[in-house]
Design goal:
The chain is built from no helices and seven strands. The chain is an all-beta fold.
Length: 93
């Protein structure tokens, strides 16, 4: 699994939307569950967000790219990190 890019966009309603592009670099298809953990500059947990797969995608074939999007209502000014978790069933890949 390889994360190709992560982008974010703030809206006028103070919502922040994240978009990630990932590649299944393995040799098996799977149904991904993608979550993000937002942490503040001190490394403290702020929020968990769930990413939704691009429309029409459920199975993630090998050697293919996929886009997923997720949102969080608002974050105070500051620096944050986003940890991405890609899972299949109860396993984190």
């Amino acid at each position: 699994m390889k994360v190709r890019s992560v982008t974010w966009q703030a809206t006028e309603e103070n919502q922040i939307y994240f978009s990630i592009d990932i590649t299944n670099s393995g040799n098996m298809a799977f149904t991904p569950v993608i979550n993000g953990v937002i942490r503040n500059e001190a490394g403290e947990y702020v929020e968990r967000i769930r990413f939704e797969l691009q429309e029409g995608k459920q199975v993630f074939p090998p050697l293919q790219n996929l886009r997923a999007e997720g949102g969080y209502a608002s974050l105070a000014n500051g620096s944050y990190s986003l940890e991405i978790e890609v899972g299949h069933g109860s396993n984190i890949i």
